[in-house]
Amino acid sequence: MTDDQAARAWAYLAAVAEPPCAALIALVAELGPLGAAAAVRSRKVPAAHRGVLAPTQARAATDTAAEDLARCERIGARLLTRDDPDWPGWQLLALDQADSAARGGAPLALWVRGPASCGDAVGRSMALVGSRASSSYGDHVAGAMAAALADEGWSVVSGGAYGIDGAAHRGALGAGGTTVAVLACGIDRTYPSGHAQLLHRIAETGLVVSEYPPGTSAAKHRFLTRNRLVAAFSSAVIVVEAGRRSGAANTAAWAKRLGRPLGAVPGSVTSATSVGANAMIADGDAVLVADSGAAISLASPDGCDTREAAPRRRTDDLRPDQLRVVEALPARGGLTVDEIAFAAGLPIDDVLRALAALDLSGHVAGSDGTWRLGAR
Amino acid sequence: MTDDQAARAWAYLAAVAEPPCAALIALVAELGPLGAAAAVRSRKVPAAHRGVLAPTQARAATDTAAEDLARCERIGARLLTRDDPDWPGWQLLALDQADSAARGGAPLALWVRGPASCGDAVGRSMALVGSRASSSYGDHVAGAMAAALADEGWSVVSGGAYGIDGAAHRGALGAGGTTVAVLACGIDRTYPSGHAQLLHRIAETGLVVSEYPPGTSAAKHRFLTRNRLVAAFSSAVIVVEAGRRSGAANTAAWAKRLGRPLGAVPGSVTSATSVGANAMIADGDAVLVADSGAAISLASPDGCDTREAAPRRRTDDLRPDQLRVVEALPARGGLTVDEIAFAAGLPIDDVLRALAALDLSGHVAGSDGTWRLGAR
What we know:
Two copies of one chain form a homodimer. Chain A has 17 helices and eleven strands. Chain A is an alpha/beta fold. Chain A folds into three domains: about 1-65, no CATH class; about 110-305, Rossmann fold (3-Layer(aba) Sandwich); about 320-375, Winged helix-like DNA-binding domain superfamily/Winged helix DNA-binding domain (Arc Repressor Mutant, subunit A). Chain A has a nine-stranded mixed beta sheet, sandwiched between helices. The interface between A and B is medium-sized, with 21 and 21 residues.
């Protein structure tokens, strides 16, 4: 088969049943994408896979694969399939094991838009979720926590919605971090419409993800199904602000079901927008999380932040001034020389001298007047 | 011995050692108050009780008993001793068992001021404690929670300090409830001085308590020793607001040591005055308590509020209107006819007719234009 044939088959399969559809995944595992697509289209499936017929019945004869792929290409999106090296299989393992009847199965494929590697972006990631009708307190905490997480090299996963989701995405973007928006509609849709610009910005540096084929409109059941991906894609889920009834409670329930640590940010007991978060803590469902450090501890319960396992930057051989300059630079984003001097508490001349040496050694990299940490 | 002799002996003993002094309590248990006072004064104690000599050495020759008793009588206070029927022995049992070396022993006697029975006041009681430098949020929550607890027939115990303590006492007073202030100075002192009026009001309806003889000034170690009584006197301890370092943490530690359930009111993670309370919840030391109902559940973990065990008012034989009037009346305090009509949603005439019948049956009692629940 050609790549193009395979892509068409995957795109057909990704649209032929409302996800998640465990029966379809099982069929693809047995017959491969082309075989599975042909079997579904012809309604002739192996006896052991007859469960795939009902969920594909309505759409089997409608093949929008070429159109979907073309639409994606136009907006810079791509179809990520289970056989792709970038497929976040490890994160989705919990979904493979979850009850498919409860709409908890894994996705067959993901439509993704943005430069970030999906596997990387969800490898060390924190979901920040909460009410659409958030308070300024919730927005502030979500934004600050997202920025602090981004500074520590964590990506921030959320649902792209108004309120807490938006504040979390913006906080991560503002800190130059990676953020992942998981949509409940087609990757080509901008929902909510007021977040068109935000989703565009996310797609420029991070990732917008959907398991729904292009053109799919947002619907209530898709928000609930989407929430399981937000939980699955994260090392921990933090509910920043939630009223008595909030979609965040659904994401929180998915976190528990998938074995993801659940945290909640407390708020005033007089605030209606914190009733849900406070209740999760009071009921012992969520751990109280007051800052990004607590969120990271929650996501790394053995105290072994995954970052620790990564190779450390070799800074042992640096001179004291050089070390202070390196330590003044954030994990993401860059600083001007003035900002570095301020953060490091060093005279400008010393900073410039240190930067010159660090640039040569690969510890820092400069462009457009700002300096960031280098590859080394 | 005469009552007067016994009172003088108790007053002497209550002042001769800095409380708590387990050795002195043991001596009194063996020799009685007169024998113990004579033995301490003469420095001739049974061999098994030689441990009492050191803590009583400095004050043994100074007998201010008559003066202390007279001073108390002038301000309407009394000395409550371990042989008094009103002695809250059950609540103090945990202290008898606590480590005396950690200043955790039971008091030998208590100086009390106010009309409330000490045994009753601490029998169904909640400690609300927190920062002296509280925020308006903390003051509001403390006051509202205290009022709601008072409405449910709980007394509110606190330390009489500025901030949360004061707000809790005021809330209980405003709801016509019983509140208990435990002082870290003599019962005749008003500390803090700005709370002279508040302590006076508490003593009019509730109880001001101290284990320190009249004239004793407040000192740091006495606040810490006092805190154990606040915890012991309560079915549960609720930290309403506490910064990173707060005396409330000490009361909370006593609650844990004495086996009292510990609750904390969450607050904004951006608020310095909630850092301590949030940390207690995050660390699993305290349960998140959002309202008086949660506090009561915490204090009655088996769901069996002690009030349930008390004989219930017989309202089964009341007519519907009468029942609504009875249910409109708070557990403490009274309402005017207009207020009852509003609360019960009944016309004034119907309220008046119901009240007349209820007055006869003893379900309600009226005075000065307000009606309250009767003895029945």
